[in-house]
Design brief:
heterodimer; A: alpha/beta; Udp-n-acetylmuramoylalanyl-d-glutamate--2,6- Diaminopimelate Ligase, Chain: A, domain 1; 5-stranded mixed beta sheet; 5 helices; 18% strand; B: 308 residues; alpha+beta; Heat Shock Protein 90; 5-stranded antiparallel beta sheet; 4-stranded mixed beta sheet; 12 helices
Chain lengths: 113, 308
């Protein structure tokens, strides 16, 4: 499934990486511990988190993730947006909480691994 | 190949009008006739020219003005009677993206370009000029990247020696969360250029990032040294931190001494060292309380060119 389809279906706001929404999303992972994501998220996954610090971009780059969704309308730091733009990592915002968002993504056919 | 959309947009911001405008501007004097205008447009195969009065830009005369005049069947007259007066100009130092927006909004076919300080006309910009300029620049950058990637991925073959190794060092400042991860991010790019297999890059990236974060979180700084040889990558991470009192214990998932504010940022979950151990083929930890820690990990890569 393309990231752009998810953005449209779940009404996500795009804060960075608007030119890279044509990426294929192969799964999703929800976690707020960076090491947990480093250890367990798979390549091409969409990452659901409430962390907004710019280190999330580095993690997404290192793991070649498809993008990051911030939950509950959390606004990313200025530096986070800049870095995401630089590193070509789509940064999205959802009004839903992690549980509901994960549920919707699961319903759309994405799985955790 | 990676998508180029983002790159194109970036170029439109990077490129200045002066880099793509035509500087050999054909002009016409304001008292020249419309038939002379027709000749000039035909001769140079262009669709419009700036109209000048001596040195001063007074208008733009385009093929549209010419057609309007022809269909009115009026007698030949001076260009300044038919031209567009006080044409909108753009500045030479503006980014191309601004020019593109003005083309879209105005529907004009060309803009005279003036130097900001002097107001002097220095060029002319058309949509065609923009396309050519962007393509030229894209091609140049693409070639450069291609050449770079080629050179690097063949470096082990091209260099003649009994033993070959690339040695790269990064300084990691302690407690600097804004720059944290930059060594590993840069290194990942290098590993790609070196043509190392993606699954191995993946493991190296995780191990490297976790080790870098440990230096950032717990110490006043340290270094990361990568030794890349045709068959393996050795990463040595040294820090001047407090040391680990019980290495065995530290390797247990969930064990952490991170302060609460560090945990709030999503770090310090006690999974760093276990992650490193999982990714490295060999891991040695040498740590002495009060004297710092040295991590040495080895990851076997096979032939550097196996990926291709």
């Amino acid at each position: 499934m393309k990231l752009s389809e998810i953005v449209a279906a779940l009404d996500l706001e795009v804060r960075a990486g608007a030119d890279h929404l044509d990426r294929e999303v192969t799964g999703a992972y929800a976690s707020d511990l960076l090491s947990d994501v480093m250890g367990h998220a798979s390549e091409g996954a969409l990452w659901i988190t409430l962390q907004v610090h710019q280190n999330i971009v580095a993690v997404a780059v290192m793991k070649s993730l498809a993008g990051i969704v911030l939950v509950k309308n959390r606004e990313p730091d200025e530096a986070t947006m800049r870095k995401a733009e630089e590193e070509e990592i789509p940064l999205l915002i959802s009004s839903l909480g992690a549980f509901e968002l994960a549920g919707k993504l699961f319903g759309m056919g994405l799985s955790g691994s | 190949m990676e998508p180029r959309y983002g790159k194109t947009q970036e170029l439109l911001y990077e490129l200045k009008i002066e880099q793509v405008m035509r500087t050999d501007v054909v002009t016409i004097a304001s008292d020249a006739t419309m038939s002379e205008l027709r000749e000039i447009l035909r001769e140079h195969s262009i669709s419009g020219v700036p109209v000048v009065d001596g040195d001063e830009l007074v208008g733009l005369a385009s093929i549209e003005d010419l057609i309007r005049w022809l269909s009115s069947r009026e007698p030949d007259c001076a260009v300044h009677e038919q031209m567009t007066r006080d044409p909108e100009c753009l500045h030479a130092d503006q980014p191309l993206v601004h020019a593109l927006r003005r083309f879209d909004e105005s529907g004009f076919g060309r803009f005279p370009i003036v130097e900001r300080a002097s107001g002097r006309m220095v060029g002319i910009l058309t949509k065609g000029g923009i396309i050519e300029g962007v393509l030229r620049k894209l091609e140049r950058e693409f070639k450069e990247e291609e050449i770079r990637a080629y050179r690097v991925s063949h470096i082990f073959e091209d260099l003649l020696a009994d033993y070959k190794e690339i040695y790269l060092t990064y300084n990691v400042p302690g407690k600097d969360f804004d720059r944290a991860g930059s060594a590993s991010t840069r290194m990942k790019r290098n590993l790609k250029r070196l043509g190392i297999r993606p699954d191995i890059i993946h493991r190296l990236a995780i191990a490297s990032y976790e080790a870098e974060m440990n230096v950032v979180i717990y110490t006043d700084g340290g270094t990361m040294e990568y030794r890349i040889s045709p068959h393996e990558v050795i990463l040595r991470v040294r820090d001047r931190g407090p040391g680990i009192s019980d290495v065995e214990e530290a390797l247990r998932p969930g064990w952490s001494t991170a302060e609460p504010w560090v945990r709030d940022l999503g770090f310090g979950a006690g999974m760093g060292l276990p992650n490193i151990k999982k990714c490295a083929d060999k891991l040695e930890i040498d740590s002495h309380p009060g004297r710092g820690t040295t991590l040495k990990m080895r990851i076997f890569t096979g032939e550097a060119d196996e990926a291709q």
